[in-house]
Specification:
about 80 residues; alpha+beta
């Protein structure tokens, strides 16, 4: 049973990352220079401050253990 849950989480995470990459241009136009939380191919929230985003998610009773949070910027940074 636990193996099945892990597999489902991995597949869901993979699908979310594919969705994120496929929609990155749209996300950049809407959420430039913001942290964006997403899960199940849906944006759950966005904020310029990570702390504030996480607080909002918590207030909305969103389980943050199964979501992705990415910083989105139109500017590419090369290190």
């Amino acid at each position: 049973m636990a193996e099945n849950n892990i597999t489902q989480m991995l597949v869901s995470g993979h699908n979310d990352l594919e969705w994120f990459n496929s929609n990155l241009d749209m996300l950049k136009s809407r959420y430039n220079n913001m942290f964006v939380a997403f899960h199940n191919k849906k944006v759950l929230g966005a904020n310029e401050e990570l702390k504030d985003l996480m607080q909002t998610l918590k207030e909305d009773s969103i389980d943050t253990s199964n979501i992705f949070v990415k910083f989105i910027s139109k500017i590419k940074i090369i290190l």
